[in-house]
Amino acid sequence: MNKDLNKMDGFMTKKTVGFTLGCFNILHQGHINLLRNAKGMCDTLIVGVLSDDYIDKNKKNRCFNLQERISILSAIKYCDVVVAEDTLEKLELWEKYKFDYLFVGSDWYGDERYIRWEKELSEIKNANVKVIYLPYTQEISSSLIIEKIAKRKREIDNE
Asked: What are phi and psi of 108, to 5 degrees?
C-alpha cells in the first residue's frame, strides 16, 4: 500500500519551481546562502547564469567564462538545473521556465526594475508567481573580492 501512495504522491502534489539569476562571477558565501535558502523553498531550483556577452557589456569584470561558471554551479547540490541567460527581464524568463518563485537578494528590494517585474508577474493569469527577497549577505560580493585581490597585488608590487 505504501508503494502505491508514493507513486500517487507526484500526482497529488504540485512540485514547486524556483528561479534565480546572476553573474556568479566569483562564487562566494553570499551566493551559497542565496542558493541554499532558495532550494529550501522549492522542489526544483533553476539557476540562470548571465552570458559572457551580457557581463562584458554591463559589468566588465568577468573572471570566468560562461561554461566555467555553469560547471561550478552545476556541482552545487542546491542547483537542480543551470541555464545560460542573456536577459534580466523576469516576465520573459517566466514565459520560458514557468517558475512559481523568483528568488532575489534583499539588496534589490525597492529597486524600480523589481517593482515593475513584481507587478508584471502578479498579472499573469492563473500563475500566482511570488517574488521572494532572500537575506543579502553583507560585506561580500564578487566586485569586493576583485577589489581586495587588486589591492593586495598593488601592495605586493610596491614591496
From this structure: -95, -5
